[in-house]
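Example (one chain per record):
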Amino acid sequence: MAKSNERMKRQDVDQEQTWDLTALFETRDDWERELKAVKEDLPEVTKYKGKLGNSAAELLECLEAREKLLERFNLVSMYADLRQSVDHSDSGRQKDAALAGDAQSTVRAELAFAETEIIKLPDGKLESFLNEEPGLEPFKKYLSDLQDRKPHALGEETEGTLAALGSMFSSPYNIYNRGKLSDMQFEPFIDDEENEIPLSFALYAGKYASSPSSTVRRNSYESFNKTLNRYKHTFAATYATQVNQEVTMARLRNYDSATAMLLHDQQVTQEMYDNQLDVIQKELAPHMRRYANLKKRVLGLDKMTNADLKAPLDPDYKIETSYEEAAETVQEALEIMGPEYSQMIKTALSERWVDYADNVGKSTGAFCSSPHGAHPYVLMTWPDTMRGAFTLAHELGRTFLPGREKSKDDQYPTIKILYRGTLDDERDASWKPFVEKHRGHS
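Predicted structure:
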């Protein structure tokens, strides 16, 4: 029986497969100094405490000082999060993430007064301030959203206390990630040729679950679920804690339910949410059952199991590709988007914006983080298939916002999504030429 190499530790990964975080901070020491400096500069915002109802000018000064500080802290927090996301098993990265989490609780608690005071402004005063001070216009969406939260806001002291407990509220998710990415180890499985293949959470989901080989699918599925089963009681208790926390917060904030609270924050109505569930459970479900039966018949399976749900309908049609080949394909395919877009893709792929290695402790799935003031970062685990190419193109698509002027501190055309709400082609004129140019293209 042949044995393949065990999964790599982060320190053994080829640097070219990892991202370069120096666009955020050159060194960890630089990060630590900025972490300290942000906390020391909190008085630049808290000096406005109790004054936000005095005048439109003071409200604007506070909001701008708050945003500037939060932009700086966003880089601090993201640096720690990104470093931990590639190796949750590293105690040093865990410590730094905890430091950033504690600092976040401090910052939120100190700045909680701003939202509380804005929410408490008398009816009509905010509208008067907006008419009086044009500088408040970029904050209009943010201020409007705060007013919508007025029926569910608590007192300033209570809000400050809840903000200070922020790291505790995120504990269920942190425990889940620590168990899944640091402690959970999967046993290798045997493939068709009697090779012993190492398994990870990311590789199962991204590669082996959709293998053309029923042996690979079912053996990897067995190993994957055997390990998950060992953690079921711990994860169930962790999930129950999260649910209880949300139910308690919903009651404190006078929502009808935890679901109503979560939907409110996302500006989604109950009707929209229920419609999605109905479509999936009532309308889509029968077609998916037919599709599963079709797979069973076409693939000649003895029975249809959960391990076979992602099996390709044509097992002989294999599209395996390396990251380098996929990167070239993505770059060529996206040339239709124009020179500015193409240059961004080229830069992203050549200057290590993407971390695609598979190593112990790495986060599962894929994401793109776009910090204001630095270029975006994409995380994924390369599965050696065209599925990975689609994921790469998908995540790179999140990194680009065309036509926006860049300040001296903003090197890259990334989306600013911090505290003024999101951008769209109706509210941001710089989108419109791009939208019109590519209207009709997907």
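Caption: The chain has four domains: 10-164, 167-199+213-268, 271-315, 323-437.
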